[in-house]
Amino acid sequence: MRFIDTNLLIRFFTKDDKEKANKVLALFKRVEKNEEIITMSPLVIFETIFTLEKSYGIPGQEIKNLLLPILALKGLHLANREIYEHALDFYIEKNISFADAYNAACVIKEGIKEIYSYDEDFDKIEGIKRVVP
């Protein structure tokens, strides 16, 4: 197993370096066929979303559309994969930061009903009650 860093995802999605983008595509094809196993951390996903949104101006829905096929690769070992899918839904549907969306998805997965926060974005998530300390 090998770890994949953010810059590979950015090169692949933006295609700002065709040669590197093609090499990453070839890697992803091997991963999809289970010829190679990769993993990444939550920070790689967060950094990818943040960079695509803030540095490249890519809209959230497009980011979601780019990421979902990668997250579904057969040879990608990713703990709690379903959390990312729910977080991407919240990120788009509720128009909140991916960090808040991820935290909301974690809270829901754990069956927690309340969250201490001053961030009103959590008020947009059904099933979570925001509590001000």
TrEMBL record:
Pfam families for this protein: PIN
InterPro entries on file: PIN-like_dom_sf, PIN_dom, PINc/VapC_TA
SUPFAM superfamilies (UniProt xref): PIN domain-like (SSF88723)
Domain of life: Bacteria
Gene3D superfamilies found in the cross-reference section: 5'-nuclease (3.40.50.1010)
Residue ranges of every copy of the PIN domain listed in the record: 3-126
UniProt-recorded name of the protein: Pilus assembly protein
